[in-house]
Amino acid sequence: MANPKRSWLDGPQIPGEHDDPYAPGRWPGEKLGLPESGPGALASVGRRAGAVTIDWLLCWLLAGVFVRFTDFLGSTPTVTLLFWMALGIVTGWLFARTPGHMVLGMGIARIDAGGAKVGLWRAALRTVLTSLILPAAMVDSDGRGLHDRATGTAVIRG
Question: How far is Cα of residue 93 from the mean position of the Cα atoms in its chain?
Answer without folding.
Answer: 14
